[in-house]
Here is the input.
Amino acid sequence: MIAELGHFGLILALLLALLQSSVPLIGAARRNLAWMTLGRSSAVAQFLLVTAAFAALMHAYVTSDFSVQNVFENSHSDKPLLYKITGVWGNHEGSMVLWVFILSLFGAAVAWFGDNLPPALSARVLAVQGMIGVGFLGFILLTSDPFHRLVPAPLDGRGLNPVLQDPGLAFHPPFLYLGYVGFSVAFSFAVAALIEGRVDPAWARWVRPWTLAAWCALTIGIAMGSWWAYYTLGWGGWWFWDPVENASFMPWLVGTALLHSAIVVEKRDALKSWTILLAILTFSLSLVGTFLVRSGVLTSVHAFAVDPRRGLYILLLLLVAVGGSLTLYAWRAPALKGGGLFAPISREGALVLNNLLLTVAAAAIFWGTLYPLFSDQLGGPKLTVGAPFFDIVFRWLMAPLLVAVAVGPLLAWKRGDLLGALQRLWVALAAAVFVGLIALYIAGGGPVLAVLTLALAGWMVLGSLSEWGERIRLFRASLAESSRRARHLPRAQYGMTLAHLGLAVTLAGIAASAWQQERIEIMKPGDDVPIAGYMLRLDAVDKVQGPNFTAERAQVSVRKGGSVVAEMHPEKRFFPLQQMSTGVTAIKTNLLADLYLALGDSDGKGGWTVRAWWKPLVPWIWIGAVMMAMGGVISLSDRRLRLGVAARARVPRGARPAE
Amino acid sequence: MTRKRRRLIAVLVGMGCLSVAATLVLSAFRENLVFSYSPSDIKAQGVPQGRLVHVGGLVEQGSVQHESDGNTVDFRITDGSSTVGVVYRGALPDIFREGQGVVVEGKLDGTGVVRADSVLTKHDENYMPREVVDALKRSGHWQEGGAPPPTLGETKP
Here is the structure.
């Protein structure tokens, strides 16, 4: 019964979305206030209905109602409660419901916090949100019904893929979707602005917090996914340029560009039509990302063909959303009047450089990710694009950007003084050289590129800090004066500094992987293996019984200088229901380096393959990502954005998903 | 300098940067294309030695041998018609097993054996790499519905 209510809720939500996508639009054209405000109440109602549907599906999972096909296929009564709940979005149908749930959440948030938007703009934004809702609710109801019943009901379910039974991966999709779907608001604002034919600094102030919130969530989502890959896959990698990863990385790159170009619109009334285009592209790439991953089109053509209706619907939806918005852009964007002029060397110029490099990088990744698909569809040879392509292209496109991160914020708006900025950065330059020399000394030589990258990270840290020092006139004014200035600096300023520092921290973590050490050995209990100054001893391998798996669990003691500093327990789990085994790695970290152990197979003669890595600075990759997201959250709490969007100053709370 | 001229220079510099970037991207792209072959392709047409390739198929039943160093594995990949030997040094994915669809990335040595740098499987029981599906289809051993051909044995360990 509850499942049927959920289904009914989705149908009602679709009808409401149809209403929401048309009536406010007509109202805005005819200046009919009652019709315009319909958008807001309908967005809230739609949110309640989709929430009810989502709750109904969750209820079916928690109570293990196997008469619902989706639950039968993806759950099992033995599963721990946490994974029963997260199993809701561990499959295609459920993840689409989560998508629509987040979409309706954002729609309702725009309705709640959009009090101070001009009614026509608010109506048009909500109408576009309604159209996206129609597309997705239609997709769920026509091709991916999560509430389909099975008669007779099976006794027990098939269980969730054991690899997905992991806290890191369980919460990865919601964050990713908060990011993807959050960009829909920027998209709706862009389309609404195109319909109105007007973009002004106020528009940028309204759209920026939503972009920022989505960006923070996406940053966390990507970091979680990469962290999960690092600790589960058992070979210490954390980024593989896999199509699925690229699909989430492209919207992040373009979204980052959007974040920066919106500043130019807000402060200088320039780059308007470019910013609109970025908003459209960011959400389009989010759509492509959602579908590429979910439809399986990238990994297997066969999976795509299982349900041709689904594939066709997806193609049509992409065509309408991306094609439609770009057509509208081509038609209306020339009408947008450009604002402030600026010289190439200026803050705007630096932000343009940032935008160019980020979008070109995204385009290169797009090309590398989708080329195999096109080649295959057009009857060309079967091929893949190797990871080195992405490495090379990305490295050389990002290098100038990272150098510029330290310089850009020091340039003045309109016309900057590059020489002056560089003079103020001599400390940073000295620091960069210093960091490079230290790295060379500690590592006793090492790959040139890695040393240079570490130096670049040092440059970015000191560059960001000296920019902050400039602002508070550190060492130039009295200490009291400096601390007064520091307290009164806008939070957005601190947000930016923190995010740029986070980028440098991540970069350092990536660079240091050049110095990792690796040992793969067959060990019998009692054997010792040295790595990076530690001595690893395999004490025993025990059989352990888990809730829905059996495991072989190794006991490894880690010694340094004769005394035991840690016990580590890498495992190999076997899930009898799915006939699958997965590894559980053991990681010991002191935040400067990770010791990483994975248990391999038994050789049948009492020995076990043990893989050990020592990875310097690797935790910094994710620490940096968290710092970037935190920077975004701090910016979000800035008074200027708060006032810009909601008179009642609620936006940061409305954007809570970012945390 | 007039305004027009300044704009011209800006455009030229922009075009220059763009073409350098495009050249860089395209040459890196060409060098890093990895073509996929089935064991039958390798037998029929041969594969240039020393070029990175993907070979897809099922791990042949009874072919997996761990060498004594604990780190090197020999096995054969089959598409039902032909087989090709693989030598791989390193950590195998958790779900690697006989009868499983895999794609190996590596270079062919002089004796027709693939020296693999990596072995790819996917973490999904229903999943079969596209290359494997195609290889099986072309050799006529594909069965619709995704079940592996019976001639190649059971997939369960």
Chain B touches chain A at residues 10, 21, 24-25, 28-29, 31-36, 52, 54, 66, 69-71, 90-95, 122-125, 127-131, 133-134, 146, 156-157 (CB under 8 Å). The first strand of chain B starts at residue 33 and ends at 37. Residues 1-33 of chain B form one domain. Chain B is about 30% helix and 25% strand.
